[in-house]
Design brief:
The chain is α+β, with helices and mostly antiparallel strands. Helix content is 37%, strand content 21%.
Length: 572
């Protein structure tokens, strides 16, 4: 699983065939290290994703929707200034390295023709997207600025001359003509793993998985040149593959590699990457954009869990309250035997067959005051029981609430975080973290729930956070429609927009309820369903909290393929 130079060789050909001669219509930067360029080519609109994400750096055409920030970044504005309306004239790769060069021609403000290079360097945490003026090779801007304090070899700053990444003394496999050195490596390193490691030191553009696959190809028979060329010819006619490898890991490759299982094929490399990165990249974006929310939720959970432990400890201590009452009653009964100045006295315990009991006394108090002291302690502890039970209930509600929020963040798309942030602000949990003060009276518009379509065409709506859940259940849904939710498990409110849904539709909606819950990776998840008319919201409760009755329960094992199918139904 590596977006290495060899994979880029295949992607370069796909992008050239799909986008070359296309015109740039839109440019957006939905995430800090990622750029989306909309290009209209051959009568179709395509979203070209350029990512300099440290973990998921890549270039592809994507069909995954995105949400733009309210205010474009400076880099976005510069890109729009220079590339809006430009024509993509060529897609090239620097040798077989992890550098892709997109050539554009456009017009400046004076109407003069311009020649620009958009260079994408895919190098893990050093990945970058750089706009260069082609005639003089001057950098116009980069998505990540790199100064001399970080890299002495080259500057990636506006106005600096663009210099290619340091050239490695490696051979381009697509232009290689002699193979004596490869044959020598095979003799020196007959072990596949050792051969793969040394191939990476000789051949350009090999990730670890690609070098292992090449080593396996070379060991097929004694014809080194044929095996080498056959392997790399596959990159010129890719068969995009998602496969399972050792330790239940999933790998994407340009064609099926040896020793893989459950190979799944895609029409294009871009579709393959969408399938592979959709969830992984989304989780990373959520962690990146929701860092403050995650921090606040973890802090609140830690605080309330600590408080709950203390309250339960105090409650256990009140279990001895009756001992104080008994001692007070015994002292009152035998008050005539108690003398002032005594520090303790032994009296018969009439609650336990008159067995002797030793009672501590204060020598500064009268016998009657000593007895009253025990009654006061007893009453104080009895009052504490009621208070502690109330506090335990409230604290447990807070824990349940923040565990629900935590689950929603884990399942959220980046655009869902806006509602969660607003909810935490309204609850004053984000008071010290909100750096962008808004008008107090301005109400934020709640985003729409996610829409799915059942096999029979029935619409199903899924709330992705508490504010969406509350609006969906209490304001959008009809009283005669069906509501679903995982039983005693944090999750989404699901509404079937039908007064008489079929059993199959209920089962499909239940799958959505189980999938969009904390039990997504569990089996036989209990899902309750009932009519909306049976849902009630107690006064004073937090957003999204409801109680219900007259429910029925299904046990569902979440099926991601079914979720994808219900999503695809919305596009038909």
């Amino acid at each position: 699983m590596s977006f290495d130079g060899s994979f880029i060789h295949s992607m370069k050909q796909e992008l050239a065939g799909l986008l070359q001669t296309g015109r740039v219509s839109k440019i957006n930067q939905p995430y800090p290290n990622e750029l989306i360029i909309s290009i209209r080519a051959h009568g179709k609109n395509h979203q070209l994703l350029l990512s300099a994400n440290p973990t998921y750096a890549r270039v592809q055409v994507t069909e995954i929707p995105y949400v733009n920030p309210a205010v474009p970044t400076n880099f976005t504005m510069i890109m729009r200034k220079h590339l809006s309306g430009a024509i993509l004239t060529a897609v090239n790769q620097l040798d077989n390295d992890r550098v892709l060069r997109l050539s554009f021609t456009g017009r400046n403000e004076l109407g003069d023709q311009t020649s620009l290079l958009l260079i994408v360097e895919i190098m893990a945490r050093h990945s970058n997207i750089i706009l260069v003026n082609a005639p003089d090779n001057k950098i116009i801007d980069a998505i990540k600025h790199v100064g001399s304090d970080v890299n002495r070899y080259r500057l990636l700053l506006p106005g600096a001359t663009y210099i290619n990444p340091p050239k490695q003394d490696l051979q381009d496999p697509f232009t290689k003509e002699t193979f004596g050195d490869i044959a020598q490596l095979m003799r020196d390193f007959p072990n596949v793993d050792m051969l793969a490691a040394n191939l990476r030191k000789t051949v350009q553009g090999l990730g670890k998985d690609t070098s292992l696959a090449l080593a396996n190809y070379l060991h097929r028979d004694g014809n080194v040149e044929k095996n080498f060329k056959t392997f790399f010819e596959n990159f010129n006619a890719p068969k995009p593959t998602l496969s399972h490898v050792a330790n239940n890991k999933i790998n994407f490759t340009a064609f099926p590699y040896p020793d893989t299982e459950k190979d799944q094929f895609y029409s294009t490399l871009s579709q393959l990457l969408d399938a592979y990165y959709a969830t992984r990249a989304q989780r990373d974006r959520v962690r990146e954009q929701g860092a403050i929310l995650i921090q606040v939720v973890k802090k609140q959970l830690k605080k309330n869990r600590t408080k709950l432990k203390r309250l339960n400890r105090d409650l256990r201590e009140t279990a001895n309250a009756d001992e104080y009452r008994v001692k007070g009653e015994i002292l009152t009964t035998y008050l005539n035997k108690v003398e002032r100045g005594m520090t303790k006295i032994e009296l018969p315990d009439f609650y336990h067959e008159n067995q002797p009991i030793t009672i501590a006394l204060s020598n500064q108090q009268s016998p009657s005051e000593n007895a009253q002291k025990y009654f006061k302690r007893y009453q104080k502890l009895k009052n504490a029981v009621k208070y502690l039970n109330e506090q335990i209930d409230l604290t447990q509600q807070e824990i349940d609430y923040f565990e629900n929020i935590q689950s929603q963040i884990e399942l959220a798309k980046p655009e869902d975080l806006v509602d969660i942030r607003y909810e935490l602000q309204q609850g004053h949990y984000l008071k010290d973290h909100d750096q962008h003060k808004k008008k107090k009276n301005k109400r934020q518009k709640i985003s729409k729930p996610e829409k799915f379509v059942a096999s029979d065409g029935t619409e199903i709506l899924v709330g992705k956070n508490n504010l969406q859940n509350e609006k969906l259940t209490m304001h959008t849904a009809d009283k005669r429609e069906t509501w679903l939710h995982t039983k005693n498990i944090p999750g989404s409110h699901v509404i079937i927009r039908s007064f008489d849904p079929s059993d199959q539709t209920i089962a499909e909606a239940a799958n959505l309820a189980a999938y969009f819950s904390k039990a997504r990776n569990s089996s036989k998840v209990p899902v309750d369903y009932t009519w909306i008319k049976n849902i009630r919201k107690p006064n004073g409760t937090k957003p999204g909290y409801v109680i219900y009755d007259s429910q029925q329960t299904l046990f569902i094992t979440p099926n991601e393929n079914l979720v994808d199918q219900l999503t695809a139904n919305t596009k038909k």
